[in-house]
Amino acid sequence: MRVLKSQSVKPRPISELLMKVGSIRCYVSSCRAVLLPRFGGPEVLELRPDVRVPDLKPNEVLVRARAVSINHLDTRMRSGYGRSISEPLLPLILGRDVSGVVAAVGASVKSLTVGQEVFGALHPTAVRGTYADYAILSEDELSPKPASVTHVEASAIPFAALTAWRALKSTARITEGQKLLVVGGGGAVGFAAIQLAVAAGCHVTTTCGNQSINRVMAAGAEQAVDYTAEDLEVVIKGKFDAVLDTIGVPETERIGINLLNRGGHYMTLQGEAAALSDRYGLPIGLPMATAVLLKKRIQYQYSHGIEYSWIYMRADSEGLHEIRRLSEAGKLHIPVEKTFPITQVREAHEAKDKKQILGKVVLELD
Known about the structure:
This is Reticulon-4-interacting protein 1, mitochondrial isoform X1. It is built from 12 helices and 19 strands. The strands form 4 sheets. Strands 6, 8, 9, 10, 11, 18 and 19 form a 7-stranded mixed beta sheet that branches. A 6-stranded parallel beta sheet has the order 14-13-12-15-16-17, sandwiched between helices. Strands 1-3-2 form a 3-stranded antiparallel beta sheet, with no helix packed on it. It folds into 2 domains: 30-156 and 335-364, Medium-chain alcohol dehydrogenases, catalytic domain (Quinone Oxidoreductase, Chain A, domain 1, Alpha-Beta Complex); 160-310, 3-Layer(aba) Sandwich (Rossmann fold). It is 31% helix and 29% strand. It is of the alpha/beta class. Strand 12, helix 5 and strand 13 form a beta-alpha-beta unit.
């Protein structure tokens, strides 16, 4: 980080972001950040010491990051997923989740103050991510950090939990007493969905690997089916009001659709918009994806009487504050399996690529 004493320089525009460090007033204009200059394996990630910190817009907040988690989206983007959108914008900074301390706020920010501990997550298409000493998020992408958890623990929560929130609360609008099937409850989004549904008073069945059975049952699932050893169509009984499919392959889609009550919601995380746009380019790929989604919605509405949706994370201030409340109460957490210093970001990505670490990985910043 480059630090300039305010007494030794001429007055600078508000873009030279002001914060307080002890009793010294400093301007932050650059910081360490992990850049993605091109797509590829972990070796393409570059930790650079002097990356520019952009101007703050009126609704934005500068966060001194203490911990950022690695999401599956990060490793996919590094490998080229979504390149139809992101390639013209290289180099990028990866990362969606962050937990840290407010360093500066834009002119219109009202709910957060300098020095406050916060956590939050960026939209999936954000160009300047959180793998940096200083991250920039809009006010509605942040919430006060739950006091009962550490920065490492907090950084693992927002992106996964907000994705699950969008599916269950914004799309399916689950209510007390309803039945939910989570396909892939051992992953971060699936595990968050189980906890959100249990907190809402729903009855939850989930599929997962054998190593996750005890954990999902402890989180409140009433039935956990080992998909590696059991036939889901034989073991899972009854019908559901909603299915969240975090795996999203044709087989899980077929099973999920058939297990729904009429009027139910099938939601998958594996929408085809990015894949089709990457294959055919944005001008052709996006209309194709829209047509595919519309066709499936019409098809399943006619054949099964259900709603069909592709789920993507979106900023949701109300959702994030409820996630914070549940986390504070001990009703929502995402286990962190291992931490790495930001200087070992390549090693962290390599471990995720090779599936050496199945659980959540967090990068720490000193």
